[in-house]
Design goal:
By secondary structure, the chain is of the alpha/beta class. It has nine helices and nine strands. The protein has one domain: Rossmann fold (3-Layer(aba) Sandwich). α6 packs across α7. The structure holds zinc ion (ZN).
Length: 291
């Protein structure tokens, strides 16, 4: 069996964690164990409008409550702010943006969301600014990477070997630098994983498109080792009552369950039930049989 060096939990602190997030951590934990990888806790905090300290705190509280271990990363909010915040890596993001800039694959775009919705029924980007030659230095423009939705992109999948996919329409010419000048998610995710040395990425099937975008992007970076990473896209945990799992403080949030007296065993049992496992599951370790 192939061993890996490092994988990660990478929750976004834009809401309270729910059972779906915990399921992702469980999968990551067991795949790390199986492949002798260490686990990094990576928290993305650049999006100041959505990220709140109480959500970052909720990540620590949830991991602690469920006794989900990790090897590398912040131990608490204070440690996070002082040593791990993405603000610490701004120079690295700029460096990568400059590499892309030199590759001639970037173009500036001043389209508003409203305009994009008018140009395409699903809001896909239609390449409107590709040939407008707007200056990249112009204020209030985003930087887009020329990326076609018909292009084949090959990734290394943990179980299937190499698989080839096409970039989803919504990620056509995806943004690498936002209008406010901040680096965008696809870029920071690649730079952060490279920075920490992640070589196994475990994430939900909903992020398969992002994997393709990130592998495509990284092929233009130096070093382009991110494209050598192995990926595992897990099934998304569904509420059997078909309720959408949301990051609100509602009934599916771990915080709500913890405050209403549930124990970690109850959370694990519930996830097992939602997965349709016959034997009741009471601990993190018991999930190992199903990974
Ligand atoms: Zn545009």
């Amino acid at each position: 069996m192939k061993n890996f060096k490092l994988t990660r939990y990478a929750p976004t602190p834009s809401g309270f964690l729910h059972l779906g997030n915990v399921y992702s951590f469980i999968m990551t934990y067991h795949l790390a164990k199986k492949h002798q990888a260490k686990i990094l806790l990576r928290i993305d905090d650049l999006d100041k409008e959505r990220v709140k300290n109480r959500y970052i705190q909720d990540i620590f509280d949830t991991l602690d409550f469920l006794e989900l271990p990790y090897d590398i990363g912040p131990k608490n909010l204070k440690d996070f702010t002082a040593n791990f915040s993405q603000n610490k890596r701004m120079a690295q993001y700029s460096k990568s943006l400059n590499v892309l800039k030199k590759s001639q694959l970037l173009f500036a775009c001043d389209c508003s969301r409203n305009k994009m919705e008018k140009m395409h029924p699903k809001g896909y980007y239609t390449g409107f600014c590709r040939n407008k030659k707007l200056s990249l230095e112009q204020k209030e423009t985003s930087w887009r990477l020329k990326a076609d939705m018909h292009q084949d992109i090959s990734i290394k999948d943990l179980n299937e070997g190499h698989i080839v996919g096409k970039l989803p329409g919504i990620l056509t010419d995806f943004i690498v630098r936002r209008k406010d000048g901040l680096p965008a998610y696809q870029l920071t995710s690649v730079v952060d994983d490279l920075h920490f040395g992640v070589d196994l990425v475990v994430r939900g099937k909903d992020l398969f498109g992002s994997t393709l975008a990130q592998v495509f992007l990284s092929e233009h970076l130096d070093p382009n080792t991110f494209a050598q990473n192995t990926f595992y896209h897990h099934y998304l945990l569904q509420d059997p009552n078909n309720q959408k799992l949301s990051k609100s403080a509602g009934a599916s949030s771990i915080q709500f369950m913890r405050k209403s007296g549930k124990k970690k065993e109850d959370i694990y049992r519930m996830i097992g039930e939602w997965l349709g496992v016959k034997e009741p599951i009471k601990s993190l370790e018991e999930f190992g049989r199903y990974v």
